[in-house]
Amino acid sequence: MTTEWTEVLERLLSLQQLDSKIRRLEAELYRAPGDLKVREKAIAGFDAKMKVLKDRAQVLRAQVLLRENELRAHEGKIEKLKVQGSEVRTNKEFVAFRSEIANEQGECDRLQNEILKILDVVEQAEAKVAEFEVERTHEVDMVAKARAEILEKLADVKAEVDGLKKDRPTLLEGVPKEQLQLYEKVHAARGRAMSSLEGAYCSACGDVQTRNDVYAAQNRTRPVLCGGCNRILYQS
Length: 236
Hints:
Helix content: over 70%
Shape: rod-shaped
Structural class: mainly alpha
Radius of gyration: 40 Å
């Protein structure tokens, strides 16, 4: 059985090499869209930050409008008081009008200061929005570029995978059904159906093998399965 098993083993090793390459390429197909999502998430992050700033600026502008309306009301009162004050006849009335006008002017000054402070905050928020928009535009350009590169890469990788899968049936020829089923089962479960020996140990799971199994694997006298992971063992 030595010659027969050696031929089967060599075919299975070639099959594993092909399957490992297919698996690695398919991992690239799976990973590539994830890389793109990271960049798209960054764009969403900029959108969220800009929305917060824009909403804040909108609220602040509404507060400015309220204060401007209040300011106009106080300015209107001052004008009326000035007209009324021009008609006073006593010093006492004149002093009272001046005091009331001063109070109204104080309110005007307070409102103007508040308006300026709020507008300053609005200006800072809008400047930050403009900064984020520049960064977002750059990120959008990078996403578009990355998407084009990824699509091109995925097409190449998929074509290579399809080509490798077409080669697979040729390697299956001459492999006994029982051993092929075992290979396919372990390959599906663990990703790699075969493992080399390192001394008396399976290089995949580290399980120690019996002396007879080590000898059989080294000399390729019969199929040997690892007692720990059930992979087909071979001596490299």
